[in-house]
Amino acid sequence: MTSPSITCFIRYQIDPFQREAFRAYAEAWGRIIPRCGGELLGYFLPLEGTNDVAWGLIGFDSLAAYERYRAALRQDAEGAANFRRAQQERFILREERTWLQDVAHTRNQPRQVKP
């Protein structure tokens, strides 16, 4: 698979007391997003410092590919259930999306120093 050329960067403000609910939500997207045509780059929970901000990054080859993904997502039963659960449990307080253009040859570069 070629590297995506655009990335949807999602910033979530979460209820820090429902961190595990958000974790389950993110883990479900790990199955749903690839099935619907997105390249899941990852979901990230806060570890230290600010305790109410999480992120999700999804890559696409183009905006047209994103539109195809959105159409597939609307038809996905597990995706709909995941959205509903987030609304019912209210562990996401706010969500912001930013579209980023990938800079060639800067993603997935291996570490050159052994840990």
Question: What labels would you give this structure?
Answer:
single chain, about 120 residues, alpha+beta, Alpha-Beta Plaits, 4-stranded antiparallel beta sheet, 4 strands, about 35% helix, globular
How many strand segments?
Answer: 4
Query: What is the name of the CATH class?
Result: Alpha Beta
Strand content: 25-35%
Rounded to an integer, what's the Rg over CA atoms? 15 Å
| Helix residue percentage | 25-40%
Following the backbone from N to C, one meets helices and strands in this order, namely: EHEEHHE
Query: What's the architecture in CATH terms?
Result: 2-Layer Sandwich
Q: What integer is the average pLDDT?
A: 93
How many discrete domains?
A: 1
The helix tally amounts to 3
Main-sheet strand order equals: 2-3-1-4
Largest sheet composition: 4 strands, antiparallel
Short description:
By secondary structure, this protein is of the alpha+beta class.
Would you kindly provide a written description of the structure presented here, covering whatever features stand out?
By secondary structure, the chain is of the alpha+beta class. The chain has one domain (6-101): 2-Layer Sandwich (Alpha-Beta Plaits). The protein contains 3 helices and 4 strands, in the order E-H-E-E-H-H-E. It has helices at 19-36, 63-74, 77-89, and strands at residues 6-14, 39-44, 53-60, 92-101. It has a 4-stranded antiparallel β-sheet with strand order 2-3-1-4. Strand 2 and strand 3 form a beta hairpin. Helix 1 (19-36) runs antiparallel to helix 3.
